[in-house]
Amino acid sequence: MDRQTKKTFDTAYSAIWASYEEYLVKERGNSSATIKTKKALVNAYTHRVQEGDLPLRAATITGLTPQVSSHHIGEYSKGVQPTSVAQAISVLDEFFTFLERQGTVAVNPIFRPADLIVTWHAPGALSDDEVEAIFHLLPVHDIAWVEARDRAILHLYYDAELDPSQLFSLTASAFDGERLRVRGGRDRSLATLKLPRVAAEALSNYLLLWPGSFLPDDPLFRHHRYHRGVNQKGHARFLQMKAEHLQLRYTARLLRMAGVKRRMAERPKQGRTRTPPKWQRGADKDWDFEALILAFRQTHPRWD
């Protein structure tokens, strides 16, 4: 690109970006750090477009075509993590969507490659090292029975594979030392479950440290300021909603603190995939991610 053409390109781009930055501040409420990141990505893209080989080159920001865009995004994708590519495409798509609404460009030239997996998820199972890292992050509560309660919930949720509704509906009479009566299935009928040794020990330790006494219909897991009363079911529901709220807020933070890396979602080749039962995967190697999150949100100070 000759000097005069480059000057024309830069002048047009500067005016467009000034308008877009004003939009990001006033309409989107973006912080200065977010705007700086977006500008760096858009600048890198426009620089690549300016220096491209003919005919894959644009003399003006408004002269970009889907063909030019797809070529440069494809070149950028080589050797770059899919998450980084997805972030760049998202920023560029937002930028050109704004220009399209303003009438600066006739059509948004950005598109997502068909073979790009842009979603990621928290891992369904953690390695032994990741499990240890998360256990080290769990705060020690100054009330011994509260910590014992949280550990018991962890083991029941993971080892015994109970769901939150079953956990918070358990009563004191449901546990007899090694077996637990839980409600399950569509009809919510009672069933007797033999607990794994570690889960039974954790639950026994919790009951041993509990400073008061349990009546048969008392909820097994309770807030440390719980008082026996007429609204026991409502209180159990409060605990469940509190746990669900904390899960949404602290999941990413816990993983980041423990050094657990985000893992790309694998696209199934054909049909639906099914996760094998835990007894097939091996309980000693594969840890249920949700159980660890439950332990974290139970032991987080805001829970109490």
UniProtKB/TrEMBL annotation:
<dbReference type="GO" id="GO:0006310">
    <property type="term" value="P:DNA recombination"/>
</dbReference>
<dbReference type="InterPro" id="IPR010998">
    <property type="entry name" value="Integrase_recombinase_N"/>
</dbReference>
<protein>
    <submittedName>
        <fullName>Phage integrase, N-terminal SAM-like domain</fullName>
    </submittedName>
</protein>
<dbReference type="GO" id="GO:0015074">
    <property type="term" value="P:DNA integration"/>
</dbReference>
<keyword id="KW-0229">DNA integration</keyword>
<dbReference type="InterPro" id="IPR004107">
    <property type="entry name" value="Integrase_SAM-like_N"/>
</dbReference>
<dbReference type="InterPro" id="IPR011010">
    <property type="entry name" value="DNA_brk_join_enz"/>
</dbReference>
<keyword id="KW-0238">DNA-binding</keyword>
<dbReference type="GO" id="GO:0003677">
    <property type="term" value="F:DNA binding"/>
</dbReference>
<dbReference type="Pfam" id="PF02899">
    <property type="entry name" value="Phage_int_SAM_1"/>
</dbReference>
<feature type="domain" description="Core-binding (CB)">
    <location>
        <begin position="7"/>
        <end position="100"/>
    </location>
</feature>
<keyword id="KW-0233">DNA recombination</keyword>
<dbReference type="InterPro" id="IPR044068">
    <property type="entry name" value="CB"/>
</dbReference>
<dbReference type="InterPro" id="IPR013762">
    <property type="entry name" value="Integrase-like_cat_sf"/>
</dbReference>
